[in-house]
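Continuing the series of single-chain predictions for the mutant panel. This is the parent chain; the variants come on the following pages.
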Amino acid sequence: MQSILVCQPNHLTVDWAQRVVNKHNFNAVVSKVDIVLVDIGTTTRIRVKVEHNKPDKLPKDWFVKLPSLDWKARLITALPRLLHTEVRFYNEVLRPVSVIIPNVLAAQSQFGKGATLVLPDLTGDEFILGTPGDDLTVAQAGLVVEQLARFHAHFGREENLSKSYQWLAGPVRRLEDVLGSALAVPLMKRGLRKAGDLVPVSLHAQAIHYARNRKKAMQFLTDAPQTLVHHDCHPGNLYWYQSKPGILDWQMVRFGEGISDIAYFLATSLTIENRRRSEIDLIEIYAQSLKDNGMLNLDAKVLLKRYRAHLIYAFEAMLVTLAIGDMMDLESNYELIRRTVAAVQDLDAFNAIRL
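Parent structure:
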């Protein structure tokens, strides 16, 4: 198998692009590669234009993800091997699932040598890429909730889920959990300090108490029927094609409780007013979609209680993002903190979890 692994944007040469197109057996010949944009965050994201002679078979505009060139982001993402997880998701998990995602052009990872993911670039006129601070309409949110429900139901019905995707609960994921708990208090304190007035002082003690007891909190939040969850479904990880949503960025995919994705998504994707007005209706849409896809034993009261508890992770994730820095546009990060703080307060989320 020809390797497509690269480490730097300047490694995206004609020879490299030829190895990518060779995987598709269209006899395409690459003549030129131009780097259009390099964006460095949790990963290095590169837009390239690839000239070849089979435009009817393969796109010419590509989106390439490599490990981050930013040392802070690389430190956070390297040990849990987040990009490796996304590559493996595209290679091993994606095909049987009725969820809209881009067609992968090539995906490869190798321990010690990095990971490379190549997707079509979704910046054409027919696509709309989301940004983290977007305000979704309630109708748009309903479409995403229905997709998440189909995804959760598909894997929630699988009898040997943990055996089929054992790598999602392997040593790397356990290391991520250990690091998350070990760093929870300093990152929470730093996030609260940097957030300033965005987080009311009345929440500080509860947030620090949660961080000190994060391991116990995670045990409570995972003590439920398991499925696969995206675990990072905010507006910036969505795209829209013909008014239908697609879901991007599967680096954080893992075993979890489906309602956790709904809590994270609604807390980050809707204005505070729209969430307050519509979250119960959207949770009911989620429950009905699960039933329509074969998940029958649902208790609406339990679902709502678990929803409340999982809001804490959305709150934590946005403060940790701020604490680390340079992982999200700052104004978007502030807005998502405002939204998640309001959700945690409105539903008294800290008292929905046993610590």
